[in-house]
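Fold this sequence, please.
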Amino acid sequence: MNNEKIISILNKKLNLEKIYVTGDNNHIKIIAVGDIFKGINEVKRQQIIYAPLIDKIIENKIHALSIKTYTKEEWKKNNKNNKNNLS
């Protein structure tokens, strides 16, 4: 399963601001940004991402996922901190 297909599935099912997908079938890394994560703990956030992909995981089209989720505000803070660390 290619990364564009994963992005397409997540875009259709979830209201996300940004989705970044890297890796290959053996290990996919997903970064998802959206306010759907506001007030939700990390486990529930990951369940939100897993839900639209569960059929592909069961069919072994996706073997392993690494998921990072952020609200828009968390994403802004994270990017600001990364820029400060680079200077």
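Helices lie at 3-13, 42-58, 72-86. The CA atoms of residues 33 and 74 lie 9 Å apart.
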